[in-house]
Amino acid sequence: MPRDGSVPGCAPLGNSAQRVGKKWMDGARRLRVHHVLCLPLYRGNGYSDAFCENMEQTTRWLREYPDEPVLAVCEPDMVCAGCPNLTAWNGCRSSGRSVDEKDRNLARLFGICPGQKYTWQELLDLAGKNLTAAEFEASCRNCEWYGKGLCSYEKWKDSAQI
Ligand code: SF4
C-alpha cells in the first residue's frame, strides 16, 4: 500500500498540505468509500441523536441529488462529521485506522479513486457491479451493526436497488 494511503491504480494523494492546495478544499461534499454500503442500509440506528440526525440529512440529500458530484475519500467525511467517535485530530475513536483500510480495500474492489468526484448514482453502480456477498462479509463482519443483524449483502442489494 503506498505510504500516503493512495489506492493502487489511482493518482497519488500526496500529504495533507498538498491536498489542501489541490481540489480537496473546494467545498465538495466528501464521502468515504465504505459509506456507499452503510448509507442505503441506514434504518435509524446510530451512535447518538446527532449522528442519526446527520445520517438522515445525508441520505435525504443523496436521494434528492443523486447526480451531484461528491469527493470519494478514505478518511472522515460528511457522515463522520456528526459522529461522537470522531476525534479532534480527525481520527476514529472506535475503529482507529482499520476504518481507513476498509475504505481503501473497497475502493480497490469497486474501482473508485480517492480524491476523484463521482455522483452518488455512479458510486452505487460501481459498488453494485463489483461487490460480492463474500466481499461484503469480509468488509463488514467486524462492524457492530453487522453483528446486530442489521446489514447483509442481500439487504444492501435491495436497498441500493442494484
Ligand atoms: S455492517 Fe457496518 S460497515 Fe457494513 S454496511 Fe453495515 S454499518 Fe456499514
Question: Describe it for me?
Answer:
The protein has 162 residues and is mainly alpha-helical. It has one domain (28-151). Helices cover 45% and strands 7% of the residues. Strands 1-2-3 form a three-stranded mixed β-sheet. α2 (35-41) packs across α8. The longest helix is centred in the middle third of the chain and has 16 residues, at 49-64. The mean pLDDT is 90. Bound molecules: iron/sulfur cluster. Iron/sulfur cluster (SF4) binds next to α2 and α7.
SSE diagram, text form:
Blueprint: H1 16-21, E1 30-32, H2 35-41, H3 49-64, E2 69-73, H4 98-110, E3 117-119, H5 120-130, H6 133-140, H7 144-147, H8 153-160
Parallel strand pairs: 1-2
Antiparallel strand pairs: 2-3
The protein binds iron/sulfur cluster.
List keywords for this structure.
162 residues, mainly alpha, 3-stranded mixed beta sheet, 3 strands, 7% strand, globular, binds iron/sulfur cluster
* Average pLDDT over all residues: 90
Number of strands: 3
Report the major sheet: 3 strands, mixed
Number of domains: 1
Shape: globular
**Order of strands, widest sheet:** 1-2-3
SSE string, helices as H and strands as E: HEHHEHEHHHH
What gap, in angstroms, lies between the N and C termini? 30 Å
Low-confidence stretches: none
Q: In a nutshell, what does this entry contain?
A:
With 162 residues, this protein is mainly alpha-helical. The chain is built from 8 helices and 3 strands; from the N terminus they run H-E-H-H-E-H-E-H-H-H-H.
